[in-house]
């Protein structure tokens, strides 16, 4: 039983990171009906930028803020260069285009930051906390990760429910025509959504880098977990992305603990398949799935 | 207030509107009637910027509106209540209303908001509820309320009677006509249900296959038996 609890605690930090990446995917899906597979590529790229900033300045905080800004800029660039030229209403074309962006970003990162995997310095102590006579499998850094995730979720919730911009974003996502007739500048709002998702993904990247390494392909597995969490959560639900994201972190930790970490992606894909068979519209979705 | 001059709209090779001209004065309701496919909705969608005109245009108080984007046209004082589900079901009543005036300054927005609640008390009662919990008539009131939140000079109403009980249609249209005369609003009402529309309209315009075939007072059109048979089918 103690082992079980230890595995659960050990999964919280990675769960929070998966939740953030899933949130970025959901933010784009809700407003454009496109799954942005380039999201992890963007996060990888901005994490390399954060690493450069950290090396220059020595400050993790400046690196985090730099990644946040770079993520927003990169999100806007991806939208302008790739998604806008792809014909409107051609969502499958847009989704394939995001794969193209992913590959291009990975190739570019390999050229700009050569030398394979690099270590991202530990900003906080990442060894287990000693408390009540034993070492727990959760670190100060895990608490920082969970705290930053909670802050972002709180901020986004306030943005969507309390501000005019948030209302515009929701209206533009649910019914762009009525939004435009109401005076919402929908294309600007969508661009802001890409910037926001880019920032959220960038934070996930900077948070995950110290516990793994960073290379052009190092976040691919994060995409698998985040995509799984987003789909099971219903793709258009922010709460769904967060809760299933954290849940995914716990499951992965349990699977890795009791068997082998190589089995985690298999389990994730099994859960995804099971979900698509039993409840294809996702657990938290507002919409009924179309029957095929 | 709203002047439409030789407006033509094409969908590919099909001419949906051909050289339509009309005047929509303030303080009264002007009804455009005609059968399915007469071009009524195309007219509304063009005036609100959702469809680009082929030639000709429309002005409001002398300012050209045609060819602009919907989000700019609403800022020039033209507000459309589109046909069918024109509220956002996932948002609350309050949010649907707020959406209609987000671009305005806070003071103007708040005063219109209070006016809309006076006009439709049921919306004030249900402000916290999601729009999809409302009845058909309440949802139409919400749609009109959302359009009024931009404080328009011209209100475009596309088939407000669709799917509503006759009694509720009459109530809503009478309210709209009172609103027109009390707040000096120019209302352009598009209806397939000619009898109801002509009852509140000062002027009626009969549209057939994209062309204006008759303009007259509501009573004149309602009493013209030949016209009714030929274009309105009753």
From TrEMBL, chain A:
One family name in Pfam for this protein: BPD_transp_2
Gene Ontology BP annotations: amino acid transport
InterPro entries linked: ABC_transp_permease, BCAA_transport_permease
Claim: Transport is one of the keywords in the record: yes
Transmembrane spans: 6-27, 34-53, 59-82, 94-115, 135-160, 189-209, 221-254, 261-278
UniProtKB keywords: Amino-acid transport, Cell membrane, Membrane, Transmembrane, Transmembrane helix, Transport
Location(s) in or outside the cell: Cell membrane
GO molecular function, one term: transmembrane transporter activity
A GO CC term assigned to this protein in UniProt: plasma membrane
Membrane-protein topology: Multi-pass membrane protein
Family label: Belongs to the binding-protein-dependent transport system permease family. LivHM subfamily.
Protein name stated in the entry: Unannotated protein
Organism: freshwater metagenome
From TrEMBL, chain B:
Keywords from the named record: Amino-acid transport, ATP-binding, Nucleotide-binding, Transport
Protein name: Unannotated protein
PANTHER family: HIGH-AFFINITY BRANCHED-CHAIN AMINO ACID TRANSPORT ATP-BINDING PROTEIN LIVF
InterPro entries: AAA+_ATPase (IPR003593), ABC_transporter-like_ATP-bd (IPR003439), BCAA_Transport_ATP-bd_LivF (IPR052156), P-loop_NTPase (IPR027417)
Molecular-function GO terms, alphabetical: ATP binding; ATP hydrolysis activity; branched-chain amino acid transmembrane transporter activity
Pfam families: ABC_tran (PF00005)
Domain ABC transporter residue range list: 2-234
Family of this protein: Belongs to the ABC transporter superfamily.
Tagged with keyword Manganese: no
GO biological process, one term: L-amino acid transport
Transport is among the record's keywords: yes
Species this chain originates from: freshwater metagenome
